[in-house]
Amino acid sequence: MSIFFYNEDVVLPEVNFKALENVLKSEIRINKSKLGEVNYIFCSDEYLFDINVKFLKHNFYTDVITFDYSADGVVSGDIYISTERVLNNSITFDQLYMDELVRVVSHGLLHLLRYNDKEPEDVIVMRMKETDLVSKFNSLVGL
To answer: Exposed site from 56, 59, 82, 87, fewest CB < 10 Å?
Structure first.
């Protein structure tokens, strides 16, 4: 199957989507899973906030929400990402925008691969995986 990138109410980020797709597919293989259909939807803060309230009953802004449809080792889902929140986070955490974007894209996929970030030890593992995927992406695009 495939990984798709869409935009809802924002401009699609300028990223090497082929390299990003290669990194994500590699991570799926490393985790001994198969790719179903993964949709990334880039949107605004308000768009993602509305989803957070409507579907998760959370009354706060976030950078990413993952809806997991995976079954029987086949990874599938919809991952919504606020490009505004990614930009804000890149400034707050003194990161390059592209690194932060790839981190958040990776974060969504990692949830589909059953990684969690509820417990402190899980957060450490998740951050390490995100950092690894950002490094792999940067290597592919020559950064």
So the answer is: 59
